[in-house]
Structures are given as structure tokens and as C-alpha cells.
Backbone:
């Protein structure tokens, strides 16, 4: 066969194949771009995970010094109370010093150090400091609860309200300018779970809820309850809602409607995986313009694999 001479029919077939190849090539290119995009995002989530670990480590280290600062502070407050009492007694004794040069010196010193002001200001300073230390202690405790460095990856019985609350404290910054949080907690038993992983689910749902609110301010409502040996948690927002055509895709990895930098599209797919691991279920109802409600249902008892 002479390769240089082709029938018009063969020519067409060749063209078709070339077009087919070009199309396949184009598809491959797109796939490649998506893959490298996916890799970027994975690296970012890896980075987030290691930042989380770092934070947990720092929290662990801060916990101890904060503990003794807090305890010393309480003692210091008691000592100061005693000193003030002593001072009061000395002041009363001044009457007996009338006319003596010692009294003049005492009075000069009192003016110089502004004793009256000190007596007022010291308790205020102490209160503010106590408040500050308590807050640091809370943050550290929340970080520890959130990451559960001490009980990594063990199934334990845990109070989900505690998990939700410590998660709320962690993501408070993302939420507080966006929404008011209403908690309607039911009477639920502790559940056998991986608490730090469930906290990630709560975090994703809460942050998504906050992101969905585009108006001035919205409300995020958290409800919990029980049904047939299961515990359910609902996180509802009155934000923009999810378009019908997106509803089936929101759990897909990398599906996001958010601008680059704000969304990775991983939150819900990770959450889905975590809930599945717990043999639970995650459902969503949403209406554009009205809001969205996610419902996580979890068994009270852990079901062993296989
Ligand atoms: N509460 C919600 N309200 C409106 N849209 C939501 C809500 N939760 C999730 N979504 C939609 O699902 C998408 C995927 O969410 P997610 O997996 O957490 O990724 P990301 O938040 O990084 O975009 C979001 O981009 C958004 O379009
Ligand atoms: Mg998200």
C-alpha cells in the first residue's frame, strides 16, 4: 500500500482521528490543571493540619505556666487584702501621732505616692488582670479540647455540647461579626466518638453558616436532640442558601462557590467522611434566600468496623 496516496475516505477518517486526539489532549490538559489545582489545595489542607498541631502544642506548653500564674494570682489577691487591712490599722493609729514629725513624713509620703488613688486602682487592676488570665486560660483549654492532643484518635464517650461550645469559642472570630448564635440544646447522652474529628465537622458547618450570611447580620441556630438511640445536631443559618443545582455537589471534594483564598471546597467532604466514619448521616435542606440547615445524626454507641 502506498501511504502517500489516500482515498478521500481515508482522509476523512484521519481527520476524525486527529480531531479525536486533539480533543483527548485538551481533556488531558484540563485534567492535569485540575490535578495540580487539587494538589495545591491538598497541600494547603496539610498545612492547616500542621498549623493545628502546632497550635495544640503551644496550648499544651502555655497551659502549665498559666496554671501557676492563676493560682499565684489568687494568693496575691488574698495577701493584698491583708496588706490593705494592715494599712487601714496604721491609718487609724496616725491619730496617736498628732504633732509628731513622723506624722508629717507619713502625710507627705501619702501625697507623693497618691495612696488614695492606689487604693482604688489596685483592685481594678487586679480584676482586669484576673479577667485577662481567665480568658487566656479559656482559650488554651478550648484549643486543647478542640485538638485533643492528649487523646489522639481514640473512641471515647464525650459530651457533644462541650465539643460544640469549645468549637464555637475557636471560630468565634469568624462568626461574631456575622451572626448571633442561638443555642437550643436538648437533653442528649454522651456519645462514643472521635471528639476532635466531630469538632472539625461542627467547625466546618459553623464557618459555612457564617460565610452564607451576606446581609448585615444573621442568626445561626444550633439545635440538638435525640431520636431512636441516635443524637442529632442541627446547624441552621438564615443566609443566602444553596442553589438547587449545587445541592448534589456540595459534598464533593473541591466543590466551592467561594473566591480563591476563602474556600477550599474541602470542608463538607471532610465532614462527610468523618460522619460516615461514625456511621452517622449528614443531611441538608436549603432554600435560596431563606437559609440552610445541616443535620448530623450520630449513633450513641460506636459500631466497630467489620
Ligand atoms: N450554610 C451554607 N449556606 C450556603 N452555602 C453553603 C453552606 N454550606 C456549604 N455551602 C456551599 O457548599 C460549598 C462547599 O462547602 P465546603 O465544602 O465547606 O467548602 P468551602 O466552604 O471551602 O467552599 C460552599 O462553597 C457553598 O457554596
Ligand atoms: Mg467550608
Residues:
Amino acid at each position: 500500500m502506498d501511504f502517500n496516496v489516500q482515498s478521500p475516505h481515508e482522509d476523512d477518517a484521519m481527520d476524525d482521528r486527529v480531531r479525536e486526539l486533539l480533543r483527548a489532549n485538551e481533556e488531558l490538559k484540563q485534567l492535569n490543571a485540575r490535578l495540580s489545582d487539587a494538589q495545591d489545595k491538598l497541600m494547603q489542607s496539610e498545612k492547616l493540619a500542621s498549623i493545628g498541631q502546632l497550635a495544640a502544642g503551644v496550648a499544651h506548653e502555655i497551659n502549665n505556666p498559666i496554671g501557676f500564674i492563676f493560682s499565684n494570682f489568687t494568693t496575691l489577691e488574698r495577701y493584698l487584702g491583708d496588706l490593705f487591712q494592715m494599712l487601714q490599722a496604721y491609718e487609724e493609729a496616725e491619730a496617736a501621732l498628732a504633732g509628731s514629725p513622723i506624722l508629717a513624713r507619713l502625710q507627705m509620703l501619702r501625697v507623693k505616692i497618691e495612696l488614695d488613688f492606689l487604693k482604688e486602682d489596685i483592685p481594678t487592676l487586679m480584676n482586669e488582670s484576673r479577667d485577662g488570665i481567665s480568658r487566656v486560660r479559656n482559650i488554651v483549654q478550648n484549643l486543647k479540647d478542640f485538638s485533643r492532643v492528649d487523646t489522639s484518635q481514640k473512641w471515647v464517650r464525650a459530651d457533644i455540647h462541650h465539643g460544640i461550645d469549645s468549637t464555637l469559642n475557636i471560630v468565634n472570630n469568624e462568626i461574631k461579626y456575622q451572626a448571633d448564635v442561638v443555642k437550643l440544646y436538648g437533653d442528649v447522652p454522651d456519645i462514643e466518638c472521635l471528639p476532635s474529628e466531630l469538632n472539625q465537622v461542627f467547625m466546618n458547618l459553623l464557618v459555612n453558616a457564617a460565610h452564607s450570611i451576606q446581609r448585615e447580620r444573621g442568626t445561626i441556630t444550633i439545635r440538638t436532640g435525640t431520636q431512636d438511640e441516635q443524637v442529632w445536631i442541627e446547624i441552621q443559618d438564615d443566609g443566602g442558601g444553596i442553589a438547587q443545582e449545587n445541592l448534589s455537589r456540595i459534598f464533593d471534594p473541591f466543590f466551592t462557590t467561594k473566591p480563591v483564598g476563602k474556600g477550599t471546597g474541602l470542608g463538607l467532604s471532610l465532614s462527610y467522611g468523618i460522619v460516615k466514619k461514625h456511621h452517622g448521616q449528614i443531611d441538608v435542606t436549603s432554600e435560596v434566600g431563606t437559609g440552610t440547615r445541616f443535620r448530623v445524626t450520630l449513633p450513641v454507641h460506636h459500631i466497630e468496623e467489620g
The helical segments are 8-93, 101-112, 115-147, 160-175, 195-212, 244-247, 267-277. The first strand starts at residue 156 and ends at 158. The chain has a mean pLDDT of 87. Strands lie at 156-158, 179-184, 191-193, 218-227, 230-237, 281-287, 291-299.
